[in-house]
Recover the amino acids of this structure.
């Protein structure tokens, strides 16, 4: 049984999802890579921002 | 001299028009194989299958057809997107019937999103097949 931490699960989710978004939403290999990386950074950044927001609310 | 408006001729696709859509739904990336986009097909297969497998490894709940809770019905629709992977999971009872751990909740979302991403990939394969996308 796999029991990743919340952040590890986010990284796995972001990686798989970004690959599919990059491949399906762009036409050229270069733009696919750039869009995939863009999506990955947005996923991870959004989670870190939400995490800090919840930490502030909790205090 | 007046120039004649040029419109791109629709590409001629042989065989059943929706074959890439259906094949792409049944097996992740197979629609792209049909359109001879090998690397895209491999990337989609690995990403979607990995996401589905990771979800099952996290003790995901696999939704079954039902007419009760609307969220359960939506979950079933999402799971169904993985095509043959869903039926394999059902046949071999790979998923759980209830969520008992926090990671199982993550896993359930992994499986549903894998199905939704496979729908996106299948539509992309269809667009490649009919020439709407290059």
């Amino acid at each position: 049984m796999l029991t990743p931490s919340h952040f590890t699960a986010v990284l796995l989710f972001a990686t798989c999802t970004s690959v599919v978004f990059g491949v399906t939403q762009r036409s050229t290999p270069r733009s696919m890579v750039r869009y995939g990386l863009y999506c990955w950074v947005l996923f991870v950044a959004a989670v870190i921002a939400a995490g800090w927001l919840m930490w502030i609310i909790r205090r | 001299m007046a120039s004649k408006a040029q419109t791109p001729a629709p590409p001629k696709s042989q065989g059943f028009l929706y074959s890439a859509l259906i094949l792409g739904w049944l097996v992740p990336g197979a629609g792209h194989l049909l359109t001879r986009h090998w690397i895209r097909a491999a990337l989609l297969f690995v990403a979607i299958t990995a996401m589905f497998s990771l979800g099952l490894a996290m003790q995901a709940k696999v939704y079954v057809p039902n007419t009760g809770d609307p969220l359960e019905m939506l979950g079933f629709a999402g799971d169904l997107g993985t095509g043959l992977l869903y039926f394999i999971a059902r046949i071999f009872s790979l998923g759980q019937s209830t969520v008992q751990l926090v990671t199982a909740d993550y896993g359930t979302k992994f499986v549903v999103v894998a199905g939704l991403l496979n729908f996106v990939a299948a539509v992309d394969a269809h667009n490649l097949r009919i020439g709407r996308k290059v």
The helical segments of chain A are 6-25, 29-58.
